């Protein structure tokens, strides 16, 4: 933003879809929103997420944003505060869920943590990267995003039958990759333990 342009001018241009004007508004208020976010968040990473959320919402709702005193800063600060409340609520829910997971008697680790420690995540990531794009998309849509096989197949332009066959093959491939990451499981299957 130059000395000759005000925030009001930049905001008017941003409302008209000028991304450079929106960037100028971002540059003008980012530090102030970040300082607030640092006070509200548990760490810098969460604070950065709050800033991103506030500015994303500013862009998404730009036509209904209440400008106070010629500035969008008050709206950004309120939005960042609300996002911090939502973030804290999510963290509390996550911690409560983790605490509810049964603990193993051996080492105090939850069953989920014990499996997570034993799994080689790089091997899974590599397996996913090696998949053809359409297979990876099918797996993500059904296993992670909760779409039905028929809906995922339609979105990918394949038949539901082909999708079922591919998913069966992909599950087997991932099951094999999982077994390779667990030395104890591999040893048991090989009969060496």
UniProtKB/TrEMBL annotation:
<comment type="similarity">
    <text>Belongs to the sigma-70 factor family. ECF subfamily.</text>
</comment>
<keyword id="KW-0238">DNA-binding</keyword>
<dbReference type="InterPro" id="IPR013324">
    <property type="entry name" value="RNA_pol_sigma_r3/r4-like"/>
</dbReference>
<dbReference type="InterPro" id="IPR036388">
    <property type="entry name" value="WH-like_DNA-bd_sf"/>
</dbReference>
<keyword id="KW-0805">Transcription regulation</keyword>
<dbReference type="Pfam" id="PF04542">
    <property type="entry name" value="Sigma70_r2"/>
</dbReference>
<dbReference type="InterPro" id="IPR039425">
    <property type="entry name" value="RNA_pol_sigma-70-like"/>
</dbReference>
<keyword id="KW-0731">Sigma factor</keyword>
<dbReference type="InterPro" id="IPR013325">
    <property type="entry name" value="RNA_pol_sigma_r2"/>
</dbReference>
<dbReference type="InterPro" id="IPR007627">
    <property type="entry name" value="RNA_pol_sigma70_r2"/>
</dbReference>
<keyword id="KW-0804">Transcription</keyword>
<feature type="domain" description="RNA polymerase sigma factor 70 region 4 type 2">
    <location>
        <begin position="128"/>
        <end position="174"/>
    </location>
</feature>
<dbReference type="Pfam" id="PF08281">
    <property type="entry name" value="Sigma70_r4_2"/>
</dbReference>
<dbReference type="InterPro" id="IPR013249">
    <property type="entry name" value="RNA_pol_sigma70_r4_t2"/>
</dbReference>
<protein>
    <recommendedName>
        <fullName>RNA polymerase sigma factor</fullName>
    </recommendedName>
</protein>
<dbReference type="InterPro" id="IPR014284">
    <property type="entry name" value="RNA_pol_sigma-70_dom"/>
</dbReference>
<feature type="domain" description="RNA polymerase sigma-70 region 2">
    <location>
        <begin position="26"/>
        <end position="93"/>
    </location>
</feature>
